[in-house]
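[User]
If only I could read C-alpha cells as easily as an amino acid sequence. I have put the entry right below:
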Amino acid sequence: MYALSPATALDFLDAGRPASWDFFSATNRQDLIEETGLTRLDFFHAARWTYHRGSEAPPHPFTLVTEAFDPNAGFYGAALKVDRPGETDQIVIAFEGTDPSSETLRKDPVFLAGQLEADAQIYFGQIPEAFTDALTFTQGVLETAEAQGIPRENVYVTGHSLGGAEAEYVAAQLDLGGATFGAPGIHASAVPEGSTPDLINYIVHGDPVGNYSADPPNRLSNILYSDDILHFGEVKYIGSPVGGLQLDAANALLAPNRTDAEKLAGLGLLVDAVKYHLIPSYEDALQQLAGADTLVDGLFANQSISLVPADLWA
C-alpha cells in the first residue's frame, strides 16, 4: 500500500536555487526572493510533473529524491531537490492531482478510483486517506532533511487540484510554505488551532474546483456542501475575470427558486467552466502574469505542456 521509493535516500548536498521570483510587482519581489528563491513556475512545473508519476525526468531545476505511491488512496507524492550547487539546500514536495485521462483509466483504474473517492470525500468535508498519506510522506521527508542539516523552512509543498488540497492539508498540519494551483480547499476542522498560513493558492477566476471554497464568498454557494470548506493560506486570483462571471451566472441559475430549464443552463455553464481547471489554463494564466518579463533559465522558452485535447489534464 503506502511505500517510499527504496532506491532514493535523501541526498540533498549541493542543492540550492538562486534568488529570482518574478511575482506580481517590483515592490514585493525582493521579499519573495528572500523567502524562497523559487519562482511560481518552479512550483507549477513541479506540480504538473507529478502527473507523469516519475516516468520522465523532473523539470529544471529539480532532481527526484524520493517518492510514495498508494494507488488505493489515489495518492502520489514526490520530494524534489533544487539542483543548484553552491546555494542553500531546498526541497519541494509535490503531490499529484486527479487525473481522469483515458490513459490513467486504461492503465491504472484503481488509482483513478482512489482519486475520485478522495475528491468526493473533500466535497463532503471529510479527510481522505490521500491526505494522511501526504502527511506521513512529508513527515518522513522532513525527518531525513533535518538529519541532512536542511531546516524545515527550506521545505515547501505544491500540487494541482487534489494535489493542491493535499498540499494545503500538509501545510496546515506542519506549518509549511509553498504554492498550490486549482486546489479545492480543505474543511476548516482540518486546520489545527494556531496554524500560521504561509502558502499561496493560485486560482484561475473561472475554475469551479479552485472556487469550491467560496472565495470570493457565494461564488458557488448553491453548489457547496459546506461553507466550512476554505483555502489554507493566501488566495491569488489569476487569468481573465470573465471566467468568474461565468461561475457567478451558473451559481445564480442553480439557485433553489430557479426553473428546471434555468438550472439545466446553469449546469451547462458549470460543466463548461471545467476548462478553467485544466493544466493549460493555469499555464496560460501564469504566462499572463509574467507579461513581457524574461524569467530565469528561460522557463517559458522550454514549455512542455501540450494543448492537444487528449493531454489537457497532464
Notes: Residues 26-240+275-291 form a domain with the Rossmann fold fold (CATH 3.40.50). The chain has one domain: 26-240+275-291.
